[in-house]
Amino acid sequence: MRQSQLFTKTAKEPPKDEFSFNAQILIRAGFIDKLFAGVYTILPLGFKVLKKIENIIREEINNIGGQEIYMPALHPIANYKKTGRDKIDVLYYTKLKNGSELVLGQSHEEIIVPLMQKFILSYKDLPKMVYQFQTKFRNELRAKSGILRGREFSMKDLYSFHKNEEDLNEYYKMAQKAYFKIFKRCGLLDLTYLTYASGGTFSKFSHEYQTITEAGEDLIYICDKCEIAINKKIIKEQSACPFCQNKKLREAKAIEVGNIFKLGNRFSHPFGFQYTAEDGSKKDVVMGCYGIGLGRTMGAITEVHHDKNGIIWPEEVAPFVASLLKIKSKNAMPAGRQEKVKNIDKISDKIYTDLQDNGVEVLYDDRDVSVGEKFADADLIGCPYRIVVSAKTLMKNCVEVKRRGSDKEELININEIINKISNY
Ligand code: ATP
Ligand code: MG
Q: Any idea where the domains of the chain sit in the sequence?
């Protein structure tokens, strides 16, 4: 994309009413805009990142048998009365003109259960795994963590349906692995711990994926031997590592980027969602649920991957692989260089189209702004590679390539740049 066409602009200062680092930097760099606390517009650069996170999740969840659907956000309150969740504190309430009471979806157990009940009748229909990417509405009391805690946010929610606990347990293990793959691809693996949390009434534990960051709202206790953690909320019952009984746990602030939960019949039972077993008896369908917040993941990435100049996107989730900077210095220069400057537009344009033709996504800074501004913006936006085309580099028939976050610059012949970048 040509940066001259991008309608957003970067800002030197974050808005005065934004206190969280993730939202400050994403607003400054033009990825999101704040409407009010906990509610943000996703701008073109942010949209690209969120779609990449979404596609990573989609691939990994499809790999473990997930079937994608899209459920409504308007829910009849009657469904919540069945499960006793009609008064939970995060619900937004609304009404139809005829007076029927509705809530805005904060999660979709109450919708997916009656949906699947129409199709799952016998043991032959099980197991099934169904997921969606949907906006959730939660009237969060504290919305001070930027996009880590939105009042409206996008979530991947997967639900699995099984004939018994053993089958659920088996799938649950597959989901755990898929989650690690997702967080690896999002550049969060090194700081993300499988964390034991309360399992509610059905199982001893649920599991959270907690990413260590000072911005985190949770406290976790890490067992460095087993590379797992325990959430503070259950540390009293579980004062040692559940695997090695190690009591020397390391405390850290962390944010829950995902969680997985064995629901058992917590939601199937109130709806009378049963299947006919092999022996002809009726049994409750056993369920699991698995969430990941998309915005929270994007926010966590910025909290973890940045320096004083801006964001440092992991490659798979970066809005573009490279920023291409066309530098037309207005300073006096030797005659040889002046010659080169004449062709700089043509050469830069060609590198831009060649890179794109070879599948490299490029943000082409073709704007008529100062050199300093171009460099500052490239760092702030944080694409993994910065390619500079200037009279100086063209004197050597080269462009200058630098990886974001490193200070090593490399001169690469313009004929080799396509090969180099597409093979990095
Ligand atoms: P938390 O304890 O942080 O409030 P939760 O237990 O309410 O999270 P779930 O309801 O299980 O979370 O939601 C699944 C995932 O959705 C979470 O792991 C997180 O990634 C994301 N999520 C939850 N609440 C928010 C929010 N307010 N804003 C952004 N993402 C959220
Ligand atoms: Mg919550």
A: 11-307, 320-422
Token digits of residue 310: 């801006």
Residue ranges of the alpha helices (H) in 231-324?
A: 294-304
Q: Which atom of ligand 1 is nearest to the CA of 255?
A: 3
Q: Structure tokens of 414?
A: 């313009």
Mutate to test the pocket of ligand 1, among 155, 198, 209, 290 (most ligand atoms within 8 A of CB): 155
Domain over 11-307 is classified CATH 3.40.50.880: no
Whether 127 is in the pocket of ligand 1, judged by its Cβ within 6 Å, is: no
Ligand nearest to the CA of 138: 1
CATH number for region 320-422 = 3.40.50.800
Question: CB within 8 A of 335, min separation 6: which ones?
Answer: none
Count of beta carbons in the 10 Å neighbourhood of residue 246:
13
Which residue shows structure tokens 């709202």?
217
For 217-274, the pLDDT digits (tens) are 999 999 999 999 999 989 887 788 988 999 999 999 999 999 999 999 999 999 999 9
pTM: 0.97
